[in-house]
């Protein structure tokens, strides 16, 4: 259900907001519609400037200490970042800390079940430095 009664019929939201409901609601609370390419009205609040206010809603439910224990206290190389992404996707332990990676900065939740269909491919990409922050499985035979 939408927080804004004007948008109560809304049933589609951008995939990249799926794991950030508070930021999504805060950032879009005054929108009367989503930007939909060049056909939308440029007077709509959805076409306004992007400001940083919505970033303040990126606070994790975990403490900074818990997150650093999972991710590592320091970065020695790019590989450290790749390893965190890989461990998150595979549900394995971070080789640097020995702790299971269950969260990333933009997502306090574990991966959705549908991601299991892509996990192996995504893990291989991320292990090699192609970092993925979104994924979407195809629906039926539709290409995504």
TrEMBL record:
Segments passing through the bilayer: none
GO cellular component, one term: cytosol
InterPro entries attached to this UniProt entry: MTHFR_C
GO-annotated molecular function: FAD binding; methylenetetrahydrofolate reductase [NAD(P)H] activity
Domain MTHFR SAM-binding regulatory per the UniProt entry, residue ranges: 2-137
Biological process terms in GO annotation: methionine biosynthetic process; tetrahydrofolate interconversion
Protein name: Methylenetetrahydrofolate reductase
Encoding gene, per UniProt annotation: MTHFR
């Amino acid at each position: 259900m939408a927080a804004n009664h004007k948008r109560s019929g809304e049933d589609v939201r951008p995939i990249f907001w799926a794991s950030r409901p508070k930021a999504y609601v805060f950032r879009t609370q005054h929108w009367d519609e989503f930007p939909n390419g060049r056909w939308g009205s440029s007077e709509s609040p959805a076409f306004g400037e992007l400001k940083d206010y919505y970033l303040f809603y990126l606070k994790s439910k975990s403490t900074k200490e818990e997150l650093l224990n999972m991710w590592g206290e320091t970065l020695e190389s790019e590989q450290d970042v790749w390893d965190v992404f890989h461990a998150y996707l595979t549900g394995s332990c971070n080789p640097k800390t020995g702790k299971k990676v269950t969260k990333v900065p933009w997502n306090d939740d574990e991966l959705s079940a549908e991601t299991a269909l892509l996990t192996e491919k995504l893990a291989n990409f991320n292990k090699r430095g192609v970092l993925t922050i979104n994924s979407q499985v195809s629906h039926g035979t539709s290409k995504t």
